[in-house]
Amino acid sequence: MGFKMGIVGLPNVGKSTLFNALTRTAAAQAANFPFCTIEPNVGEVAVPDARLDKLAEIAQSKTIIPTRMTFVDIAGLVKGASKGEGLGNQFLANIREVDAIAHVLRCFEDGDVTHVEGRVDPVADAETIETELMLADIESIEKRLQNIVRKVRGGDKEAVQQERLMRAALAVLEEGKPARVVEVDDDDLRAWKMLQLLTTKPVLYVCNVGESEAAEGNALSARVGEMAAAEGNMHVIISAQIEEEISQLEPEEAQMFLDEMGLSEAGLDRLIRAGYELLHLETYFTVGPKEARAWTIRQGTSAPKAAGVIHGDFEKGFIRAETIAYDDFVGLGGEQPAKEAGKMRAEGKSYVVKDGDVLHFLFNT
Fold first, then answer.
1. Based on C-alpha coordinates, what's the Rg of the chain?
2. Which of its termini does the chain have fewer beta carbons within 10 Å around, N or C?
3. Gap between the Cα atoms of 135 and 151, Å rounded
4. Where are the beta strands (DSSP E) in the chain?
5. Are 138 and 174 a contacting pair, CB within 8 Å?
6. Mean pLDDT throughout 19-47?
């Protein structure tokens, strides 16, 4: 089960620098001119989780395999993208393929780095991109409404449902609000997702600040925080420059560097965790002498569906899941002590997996 987060923003806000740091590679060319990222660059990054190391230590696992998240560095957008300006059409198509948007906003002053609008205003930058996405959604809906008129008149249930949802989205978009504010019933969720509207994607604002402001942020990042809170979105403060420097260091050197900068952890760890939270994801573990491994699932996932993340056959032939809570596994010193203490439970198909569960699946082949 792959989860993709698209890194977006106006040109020259630090997207590619951040991507380079995230994936510890120079695959995305970071240069001081617009559209240096022509094709979306894709990179996978391990999700930091200290629990996995602890489980591996207790079980004496030979291999540790963290769960991963995919980041996509998408070409810079400019005003008019919804009409094809700059690399607009390509940008919009790439956003449709991601699960969430990490919107990088320039929150630093630097006369040597050109701003495409000639000024530094992260809130205005956020509004520019949101507006382009809303305009693209409006155009998409209007075209699709024209195309399903005949089916609606013929009483096609699916078309009637689509029209109702599209008109609900169009109503809020024309008020200058993103489609994600529409309240959708459970019965309509599948059809709603099929619309693939850009403004239904959850947004994480990434405030890119100067090196000296990485710990506390600045007045610009504070404004973004207020905007995010008002929208019900999330934001993180990061210095892309610091993160890129850290990415070139060995772990011990990186920690020393962070200590010197007054930072408790790398900003990227906060970003990845925030992305995890934004997408309503959680982690369960499989642990043994061979390997300790983390697996990503959506919150509320049933045991059979969680088993299917490992292999489809696990879901099809699911019998039961043997479950130990993380705290019990660690507190009691492993699987056998937890089992002897009565902390291992046998759970059936209706069990909803909890974050941190240590699981072993039994299934028919």
1. 23
2. C
3. 25
4. 4-8, 41-46, 63-65, 68-73, 100-106, 203-208, 234-238, 281-287, 291-298, 318-324, 345-347, 358-363
5. yes
6. 59
- One-letter identity of residue 106: R
CA dist 238 and 243 (Å) reads 8
Structure tokens that stand for 307 in this block: 């088993």
Amino acid identity of 310?
I
Give the phi and the psi of residue 148 in degrees, each rounded to 5. -105, 5
d(CA 226, CA 233): 10
3-state SS of 168-213 is HHHHHHCCCCCHHHCCCCHHHHHHHHHCCCHHHCCEEEEEECCHHH
Give the pair of three-digit tokens for residue 237. Answer: 């403060």
Kindly give the interhelix angle for 267-278 and 240-247, rounded to the nearest 10 degrees. 110
Global pTM?
0.80
Token match 């997207």: residue? 15
Beta bridge pairs of residue 296:
283
Cα 239–205–353 angle (5° rounding)? 105
Q: How far is CA 245 from the centre of its chain?
A: 23
> Are the CB atoms for 41 and 73 separated by under 8 Å?
yes
Q: Which of 89-98, 254-263, 324-333 is predicted most confidently?
A: 324-333
